[in-house]
């Protein structure tokens, strides 16, 4: 669980450096203007108080002085907690995924020191402060919902002498027929997910994590993503992907009684899973969307591929976005209204023995190829207590007959164990590395 600092200032009892003041100086204005604070709970919902004063919308100092941060910049997510940040929080508008391999000769000792550095940096940055010897990239910005999440790949355990504590849930994922995986952009010893509602804040964190790696670890691959900006729609709405589809409607909800059981490793875990209590397993896939082919389809064909209306995400069987799929409804032609190979039908939990995962993706666009096609799609990230009961059975079924498969290509893949959130005074992974 994560929550915000309702005081609007997490610097109490700490002597501020000039950098701290510059990075956070506007947060106090929010409190002075009467902001009620922001709360991010286990449900991942955000209560927002937006404060904008004066007419100077550029943020430059004028007769009225500096302007208050909007609620987008002021939102803070706590580093310490039962679960790591970046799992149940709302989607951020900017994201970076980066995998590292431990350097040759580096082992458990170097990994411990690295996780200490990364944890200390993440705590400072997520509070909207600047670390020592800061680059100045994000000066004057608030925390902007920054989350930094850390995970371990299968090979990490061999390289740190901890193979006996590697959970079976990290066994390699099976091969799928739609895979065209590039091993250079797959897997890795360590994985870091960065998300924020400001691009400079997100890049600032990415740069800090990379610098902290020092000689202990080397970048294996790195990917950049984005979502619709906070406040871009008149009301909160489910995100859309680059195909224009409402994406994420079927996610399990934290209000559901079995949410924790599906998404997080239980506190009573034993054996190789003990250090993972409160943690989750992340499956990461770079999924290229063949947008030129997709956009040639007429609207009704696109909707039948997905099984939902493009306009509002409602199922073709009727209702609103949140209406349950009626998989037994037939049209006047005697055919199922939601086709047998529709993506929403095949991936529905009740079609997969209740298998569920929490999808928290970013879109990506890495330019236009020589043939004029966009290198764009989805950085798919899903969370579950056990990928063998979450991602794998659903993907196997999709692999056998999903109509969407003709328009996507899985180009990279990774599976990472993401331990529970650190308690005060702990660093991420300490219960594994110091056991």
UniProtKB/TrEMBL annotation:
GO biological process annotations for this chain's record? iron import into cell
What does the record give as cofactor? heme b
GO cellular-component terms in the record? Answer: cell envelope; cytosol
| Entry keywords, A to Z | Heme, Iron, Lyase, Metal-binding, Oxidoreductase, Peroxidase, Signal
Entry keyword annotation includes Transcription regulation: no
Q: How is the cofactor bound?
A: Binds 1 heme b (iron(II)-protoporphyrin IX) group non-covalently per subunit.
Which InterPro entries is this protein grouped with? Answer: Dimeric_a/b-barrel, Dyp_perox_C, Dyp_perox_N, Dyp_peroxidase, EfeB/EfeN, TAT_signal
**Sequence segments annotated as region (Disordered):** 1-22
Q: Which Pfam families match?
A: Dyp_perox_C, Dyp_perox_N
Where it sits in the cell: the answer is: Cell envelope
All copies of domain Dyp-type peroxidase C-terminal, residue ranges: 238-421
Please give the chief subcellular localization of this protein.
Answer: other
Q: Does the keyword Repeat apply?
A: no
Enzyme class at the top of the EC tree:
oxidoreductase
The EC designation for this entry is: 1.11.1.-
Instruction: Cite the Dyp-type peroxidase N-terminal domain residue spans from the record.
Output: 84-227
- Please give the superkingdom of this protein's source: Bacteria
Renumbered to this chain, the Polar residues biased-composition regions fall at 1-11
Reaction(s) catalysed (UniProt annotation): heme b + 2 H(+) = protoporphyrin IX + Fe(2+)
Q: Which GO terms describe its molecular function?
A: ferrochelatase activity; heme binding; metal ion binding; peroxidase activity
Task of the protein: Involved in the recovery of exogenous heme iron. Extracts iron from heme while preserving the protoporphyrin ring intact.
Give the UniProt family note.
Answer: Belongs to the DyP-type peroxidase family.
Q: Which NCBIfam families match?
A: Dyp_perox_fam, tat_substr_1
Q: What is this protein called?
A: Deferrochelatase
Q: Which organism is it from?
A: Streptomyces gardneri
- Kindly list the organism's lineage: Bacteria, Bacillati, Actinomycetota, Actinomycetes, Kitasatosporales
